[in-house]
Structures are given as C-alpha cells and as structure tokens.
Amino acid sequence: MLKGILIPDKLFIQVMQAPLQNFYDISTSLVFDGLPRSIAQAVWLNKSLTEQQIEICKAIYLDVSLEEMTKRVAKRLVCMSCHAPNGYYNGQEKCDFCGGELAQRVDDESTTVHDRLLEYQKQTEPLIKLYKADNKLIEIDGEQPIHIVFADLIKSLQLSLLPDIPDISLEHSIDL
Question: How far is 76 from 98, CA to CA, in rounded Å?
Fold first, then answer.
C-alpha cells in the first residue's frame, strides 16, 4: 500500500477466497466496491460466484476524469489512530470516530497518485469493455454533485433490475 500500487491478482484471490466460499445465503444481494480491478480478477470472481449459483447482474462505473480523480485523492484524509477514512480535507483536524489526528495517506501523495491512477485506468478499461459487451455495465457521470450521482445510480439500478416498479423520484427525498 505504501508504494501506491494496486493489489496483485494473486493476493486478491487469496483475500476473497474464504469469504466467498463461506457465503451461502444466495437470497442476499452482494455489492462489491472497487473490485474486480482486472480481467483475471473478474474471471476468478465470476467462476467463484457461478459455483454458488450467483450471477453478477450489474457492474457500476462512476466515470471520473484522471484530473478530477487526482484532485479528489489528494484531498483524502485518514485517521492516524483508528485508520478510518474521514472524507476530504475541509479544515477538520480530528477524526469523526475517535478524535485522532488526520493526515494524508502516504500512497495518496502526488508522487504516487498519478502513477496509481494511470495503472487503475489501464487495468479497468478492459473490464469496462467486458461488462459493456455483456450488457451489465451501468455508467454514471461521477463528476456531478454527489446527490445527483446517487440519484442517477438508484434510477439506473431500478430501471435495469426492477423495470416493472414505478419510477421513484429521489430528488425531493435527499436532504441537500
């Protein structure tokens, strides 16, 4: 992590193997955040889920430019005591959870961020094409305000997974 590199496929499989093998309740929906990040990870994940009769229904891609991602990552803070993420720098100096001191992650410094994000794009671009070809990709403009991103995501999931349910407007239900 300190070098800012992405998790290697072999380590991904080692970390994910036990939880997926012990997941028996197929009536429960699963949401994976930030993975898979490579074709090899996607192939392994699909095989593991298929063995349990679970299908990947949708893959969500929040489309954010390299420039915007770099800006956002440079502002991320983590607690030095409990290691909890604390959002973006806004003058806050103490952790919301334990009151510990906040600092930028070592792998979020500008020297490593750019290379890590380029590697992320290189590895995930084939995934985007794979899920798009399988008609499983939901693309959301991630550069919009967060409440719009959230509303777009819910609406896209609703339309693709629950097409027979009447439209739910979130515009008035979100406290801005």
Answer: 17
pLDDT, tens digit (0-9, with 9 covering 90-100), for 125-166:
999 999 999 999 999 999 999 999 999 999 998 888 876 666
| Residue spans per domain, the chain | 9-21+33-143
d(CA 173, CA 120): 34
- Please tell me the distance from the alpha carbon of residue 87 to that of residue 76, in angstroms, as a whole number: 6
The answer to whether 78 touches 89, Cβ cutoff 8 Å, is no
Asked if residues 9 and 38 have their Cβ atoms less than 8 Å apart, the reply is yes
**What's the CA gap between 157 and 149, in Å, rounded?**
12
Q: pTM of the predicted model, to two decimals? A: 0.76
As a CATH number, domain 9-21+33-143 is 3.40.50.300
CA distance 68 to 142: 10
